[in-house]
UniProtKB/TrEMBL annotation:
This is Pentacotripeptide-repeat region of PRORP domain-containing protein. Belongs to the PPR family. P subfamily. It comes from Lactuca virosa. It comes from the Eukaryota. It holds the Pfam family PPR. Keywords: Repeat. PPR repeats lie at residues 251-285, 355-389, 390-424, 530-564, 600-634, 669-703, 706-740, 813-846. NCBIfam families: PPR. The keyword Repeat applies. The keyword Repeat applies. InterPro entries: PPR_rpt, TPR-like_helical_dom_sf.
Length: 907
């Protein structure tokens, strides 16, 4: 109790987030015996957090474990364990179940059967079958006869479980095997039918008793009276009430039933008048609580809480308080319930302490509304008032720890469930699983799921889906496989996200066949695989050269209403073209797709593009010609794709023939120009590319080539040292208003550094023009930049000036800075070092060429000692080089760099 009081003052309450907040919270610490005030787990003191967190969690778990263990009754637990060792009851099985093993086990306990013991067992044991087993066994033991109280208890149990057929079987069997005491027999029979909701039968039996001169006792009279009120037999209520009064059996129970009768007729004023009349009459009754409670209960159910509250204040007793709390909770008037409890705590007379059922109902409702501080107060109050928790209390506490962000304590209590006699409810299992999934403890959540299934409980679809999503995030294939199997066995259809993630995880691990099997299982379940999962499977089989399966999946995808994208379609076509006997496979795929698609240009273009990527222009040409035969004129996209197909395969002559054929059919445009020029450049045909470029520019005056077209053309002309033609292309680019890109500028700087003929050619080409026009033109100014990098001007160049000059022509990037470094490192090593620091300060990420340029430069200038310090400065890159070398991925450039570094170290 000391621990819990400490927790209330210093731990849990101080750590719960603001009300109605679902976010998990941290712990405060447990103080030592020498510390007067608790230290909070403040982020400012990280060194304390881990150890104190563990200490707090363990202390809380031990505290609640001890409290939970106090609720058990080892003797009754032993009886319950024997009784619950065989299944559960159903409407279709016989009421009397003979189990020799259970009979022998109970007999071995040498129980001294009494009415009190039987009632205790029936109250303690929760499931109906176990109760009926014990009741039946006790009735067959020599020297013991069931009493009206034990019969009434089993009747109520069966009635609450709605096992009326079993109840009637019991009454019929008892009628046939009546005991030695006739009065007791008739009392029990009348009570049984009354509790079973058959008051008319009970009245008939009562009439026969009176005819035979036998009467009911006071207990049976009140059971019958209550049943008549419940079923609305109000005329008979008055008659039976008069007989109860005549026989001197009238008590507070009688008055409370009659008050309930008025309330059932909605005569609340009469009920209150009757109540006050009984109290004012001076009739000797043990307590007015039952009478007042009946009226308070009825008023609350009629939503007259204000009137009921006044009666509670005027005639309040503990029984009335119980009803008042129950009804406030039922109506979700939690503020009223909490205020009332606080008021009763301040009474000068005996303090009202709710029973465990009232605490449970109030705490459960507060928990659902995230009022965690008040939940904490009530839980601690239960412990301080020495109220033993029942099974529901334990489950609620577990849920509280989950909501309060202390799921580790909940797991500790869960792991101790056998020791403390805890049987988890579906609510607690769901809370645990959901919270663990949210916190990333998927393995623990899966363990709880497995244990629950082993014990016969299967969580609902929502927690199952939450766990499925969590498993997707961790991509644990073994758990996902088992989870999928369990879902199949229980007929649970998981979310599309789970199946998608599962298939994606299998494919990413190279288990394509397993992914394909899961896809097949979904088909059997009439569940359509998602488009993303189809994409993953198809791309996986494409990478593994299984174009046949990829083709099958593509067709399925279309049949299931999923539309494959362009990249996926062309990927399948490309894969088919790379298989054995590609012609046959290609035609087969084309025929199957034609049966599913309405042929159009887009459809045929997919096949042309895929065949082109596979470098099978012959197959692309077949589709191209098939379009014409089908009466579909190839569109611009078809022509472009067919040109690319020829150019990728090195079929330059075929590409040119098609190009000139296109010129006859359509007006030349930017796309055709770009496709031909770029394709010829990448095919290393600079002269042909330039020829086509000039021809297009001559015939199509309005055609403005793309920047890519200029970039590729200038790149290939520089590569083959056709510098005179580079000038022509740049001039054309300037005329059409196309800006100089970083790619073109970097290439010009690179070839200026590598080959001084670029600048010479530049000067020669400009010398034929007049001085005035050339010196003011952009091409002349660009030539000055080329000359600067060709070492034709001064050597001592300021790096800021150099940056500014280059920046006037095109945007600078890391490759441009590499050119500047390469220029400076030849003669201005210190300036190169300063430029490198400037590059880093500007946020550029140096690449291998950057480091290589610097290291080689220092090495060539013989500044080994200084270079050693540079190595330390570049240590991150050195580690990267080492990792790549050990991984077998060291290319020649890096190898040279490594050599230079070794030289530095030796020096």
């Amino acid at each position: 109790m000391v621990r819990l009081r400490y927790l209330k003052q210093n731990s849990i309450r101080s750590l719960i987030s603001p009300l109605n907040n679902n976010n998990p919270f941290n712990y405060s610490t447990i103080t030592s015996s020498t510390t007067s005030n608790a230290l909070s787990l403040n982020p400012l003191f990280p060194s304390y957090s881990s150890s104190l967190h563990k200490l707090q969690a363990e202390d809380l778990a031990v505290t609640f474990r001890e409290w939970f263990k106090s609720s058990g009754n080892p003797f009754l637990d032993q009886i319950h364990q024997i009784l619950s060792s065989n299944g559960s009851i159903s409407e279709n099985e016989d009421f009397v179940v003979q189990h020799e093993a259970i009979d022998a086990a109970l007999s071995s306990l040498n129980l001294r059967l009494t009415e009190s013991l039987v009632l205790d067992v029936l109250s303690y044991v929760k499931d109906v079958l176990s109760c009926t087993k014990f009741f039946d066994w006790a009735g067959r033991q020599q020297g013991f006869h069931h009493t009206r109280a034990t019969f009434n208890a089993i009747f109520k149990i069966l009635s609450r479980a709605k096992l009326m057929s079993k109840m009637f079987d019991l009454l019929d069997r008892y009628n046939k095997h009546r005991g030695g005491h006739m009065t007791n027999f008739h009392n029990i029979l009348v009570m049984g039918y009354a509790v079973a909701g058959k008051p008319e039968v009970a009245l008939q039996l009562f009439g026969r008793m009176r005819y035979q001169g036998i009467d009911l006792d006071d207990f049976a009279y009140h059971v019958l009276l209550n049943a008549l009120v419940e079923e609305g037999y109000f005329d008979e209520v008055e008659s039976v009430a008069r007989q109860i009064k005549t026989r001197g059996f009238e008590s507070e129970i009688t008055h409370s039933i009659l008050v309930k009768g008025f309330c059932r007729k909605r005569e609340f004023d009469k009920a209150e008048s009757y109540l006050r009349g009984v109290i004012d009459s001076g009739i000797k009754i043990k307590s007015s609580g039952y009478i007042v409670g009946a009226l308070v209960d009825a008023l609350c159910k009629n939503d007259e809480f204000e009137k009921a509250g006044k009666l509670v204040d005027e005639f309040g007793e503990f029984h009335v308080y119980d009803i008042w709390i129950r009804e406030l909770v039922r109506a979700r008037k939690l503020d009223g319930a909490m205020e009332f409890l606080q008021k009763t705590r301040n009474q000068k007379t005996a303090v009202y302490v709710p029973d465990v059922f009232r605490y449970n109902s109030l705490i459960l409702r507060l928990l659902r509304e995230n009022r965690l501080e008040e939940v904490c107060d009530l839980v601690i109050e239960m412990r301080e008032n020495n109220i033993p928790p029942d099974e529901l209390t334990m489950n609620i506490v577990l849920c509280f720890f989950c909501k309060a962000g202390m799921v580790d304590i909940a797991v500790k209590l869960y792991d101790s469930r056998t020791e403390i006699g805890l049987s988890l409810s579906s609510m607690a299992v769901n809370y645990l699983m959901n919270t663990l999934c949210r916190d990333g403890s998927v393995i623990d959540a899966y363990r709880i799921l497995s244990n629950s299934i082993d014990q016969g409980y299967f969580p609902g679809k929502i927690p199952f889906s939450i766990l499925a999503d969590a498993l997707c995030n961790v991509e644990n294939l073994e758990m996902m496989k088992e989870f999928f199997r369990v879902a199949l066995e229980h007929g649970i259809l998981l979310s599309n996200k789970f199946y998608e993630k599962y298939i994606n995880a299998l494919c990413s691990k190279g288990k394509l066949e397993d992914g394909y099997i899961i896809h097949g299982e979904l088909t059997l379940l009439d569940k359509v695989t998602t488009g993303c999962a189809y994409n993953t499977l198809i791309n996986g089989f494409i990478k593994h050269n299984r174009g046949d399966i990829a083709t099958r999946l593509l067709i399925e995808m279309k049949e299931k209403g999923r539309t494959p994208g362009r990249e996926l379609f062309r990927g399948v076509v490309q894969s088919v073209c790379e298989m054995e006997n590609p012609e046959k496979q290609f035609k087969k795929l084309l025929e199957m797709q034609l049966s599913l698609h309405e042929p159009n240009c887009t459809f045929f273009n997919y096949f042309i593009e895929g065949a082109g990527l596979a470098k099978r222009p012959d197959l692309a040409k077949e589709v191209y010609e098939m379009m014409k035969k089908s009466g579909i004129s190839p569109n611009l996209g078809s022509d472009v794709l067919m040109l690319k197909s020829y150019l990728k395969s090195g079929k330059t002559s075929d590409a040119l023939m098609l190009f000139y054929d296109i010129l006859k059919r359509r007006k030349i445009g930017r796309k055709i120009c770009n496709t031909m020029v770029v394709g010829l450049c990448k095919a290393s045909k600079p002269d042909v590319a330039l020829s086509i470029f000039l021809e297009i520019r001559e015939k199509g005056k309005t055609v403005k080539p793309s920047i890519e077209c200029y970039e590729e053309l200038i790149y290939v002309l520089c590569k083959y040292k056709r510098y005179d033609k580079v000038m022509d292309v740049i001039n054309d680019m300037i005329r059409v208003g196309c800006p100089l890109s970083s790619f073109i500028g970097n290439n010009l700087l690179l070839y200026s550094l590598k080959d001084q003929n670029l600048y010479s050619t530049w000067v020669d080409s400009l010398s034929t023009e007049s001085t005035e026009s050339t010196q003011s033109s952009p091409i002349w100014k660009l030539g000055e930049l080329v000359g600067l990098f060709s070492d034709r001007f001064r050597d001592d160049i300021d790096i800021d000036e150099l940056e500014e000059v280059v920046g006037k022509f095109f945007p600078l990037d890391i490759y441009t800075y590499n050119m500047l470094l390469r220029k400076l490192i030849k003669k201005q090593v210190d300036d190169a070092s300063r430029l490198f620091r400037k590059i880093c300060e500007k946020g550029y990420k140096p690449n291998q060429w950057t480091y290589e340029t610097l290291v080689h430069g220092f090495y060539r200038h013989g500044r080994a000692a200084e270079g050693f310090h540079k190595v330390a400065y570049f240590q991150k890159h050195v580690k990267h080089i080492k990792d790549r070398r050990e991984g077998g991925k060291l290319d020649k450039g890096v190898a040279d760099l490594q050599y230079c570094l070794v030289v530095f170290w030796i020096s």
